[in-house]
Specification:
This protein has 4 helices and 29 strands. It is mainly β and about 375 residues long.
């Protein structure tokens, strides 16, 4: 019995037996490794059979190198045009210009542009021919002038445009990477990436931006979706509506109602003259010197609000610190409660009421005032401090 048990124990240590010798797991993996390496080496080096188009990794990389060698030529072609502004025209729409777009509202009666295309090709002459095949197709749609870039199949082309329009026209940009627009009636962004700068826009800015820097300095209003966008928004006179995700948004010198839905976004608002409402999850919300009623209702987001004069505040978050910073001595009534968290107010010699894991603090700061500040945090601390 003992001998049979020992035999089973010895046999259970091996998976295969070859030529009277047993092969263990490690040796088997080594054999498989040699097989895989040999197969890859063959695929890289073996030519296809005559008359066939069988795949090999060597051929794949060879074709890629051949494509680069086949288009060493480089050329640039620039086209200028001047278009009359027809009666009833309200908008210029630019589609598919895959590099920078520049639009300036400084023309009087015409739309003037320079369309520049760089291309590669089999040689410089071939590259120039491909650059010239890249054109702007015009389409008049209702009150819009549409210019759509059309590219040839061979080679690789990059197109830019510089355009001068009357300031009373709106501009719509679609499927471009980078744009600068100045002094036009309004701007709409659709599928725009990269660095975008908008200045002195008389009306609204709408649409979507992602993956780059967005600067808006001067506009009547903003309604935008922002994805992985680093946005700097200033001098907005009549309100902002933002859906911001995975980015960094800063709003300064602005007015009007502000509504922000954020997810994993860092939002900073300074000196906004109008009501503020922020909703969302994760990220960070910082509001300095709000001038009107402010409501922040977020989850798992750090919240910090600094006030110099009292305004109604409702600040709600969870699992992250909630800070209220007093600059000077604003007068307001405080109602603060932390569930499974603490309330810290040592700068004011105040101690909260404690009940099991919950804390609550009610206090009147300064003279009696109608401004009420409500703070709520779940599984996070509330901190009151002086600036």
């Amino acid at each position: 019995m003992a001998e049979r048990a020992n035999a089973r124990a010895v046999c259970s240590c091996f998976y295969y037996k070859i030529g009277g010798k047993s092969m263990g797991k490690r040796e088997l993996f080594i054999v498989f490794g040699f097989i895989v390496v040999g197969t890859l080496a063959f695929q890289f080096t073996a030519p296809p059979a005559t008359g066939t188009s069988s795949f090999s990794l060597g051929n794949f990389f060879s074709r890629a190198r051949s494509e680069m060698r086949d288009n060493p030529g480089r050329a640039i072609n620039a086209t200028k045009a001047s278009l009359p502004v027809t009666a009833g025209l309200r908008e210029v729409r630019l589609i598919g210009i895959n590099e920078a777009v520049t639009v300036v509202g400084d023309s009087k009666t015409t739309i003037d542009y320079e369309f520049t295309v760089s291309s590669n090709g089999p040689d410089d002459a071939g590259a120039l021919a491909l650059a010239k095949e890249t054109v702007l197709l015009r389409d008049d749609v209702a009150e819009s002038l549409v210019l759509r870039a059309k590219f040839p199949d061979p080679g690789s082309q990059r197109a830019t445009i510089t355009m001068h329009v009357p300031p009373g026209l709106s501009v719509r940009l679609e499927s471009s990477s980078g744009a600068t627009v100045t002094a036009v009636a309004a701007v709409h962004l659709e599928a725009i990436r990269g660095k975008v700068t908008l200045t002195d826009i008389a009306g609204g800015v709408t649409g979507a931006h992602q993956d780059g820097d967005l600067t808006i300095a001067g506009a009547k209003s903003i309604k935008l979706r922002l994805l992985r966008s680093k946005s700097r928004l200033s001098k907005i006179t009549d309100g902002l509506t933002l859906d911001a995700r995975d980015g960094d948004t800063e709003v300064t010198e602005s007015a009007g109602a502000m509504e922000v839905d954020e997810i994993r976004n860092e939002l900073t608002v300074t000196g906004h003259r109008g009501p503020i409402a922020v909703r969302g999850n994760d990220g960070r919300v910082t509001i300095r010197q709000p001038q009107a009623e402010t409501r922040v209702d977020v989850r798992r987001a750090e919240v910090e609000v600094e006030i110099k004069s009292a305004v109604p505040l409702t600040l709600i978050t969870s699992e992250e610190p909630l800070r209220l910073i007093l600059d000077g001595a604003p007068a307001f009534t405080l109602d603060a409660a932390a569930s499974s968290g603490a309330i810290q107010a040592v700068d004011f010699d105040l101690k909260p009421d404690i009940s099991e894991s919950d804390a609550r603090l009610s206090h009147v700061f300064g003279a009696k005032n109608d401004a009420k500040i409500t703070l709520r945090n779940t599984r996070g601390d509330i901190i009151l401090r002086k600036k």
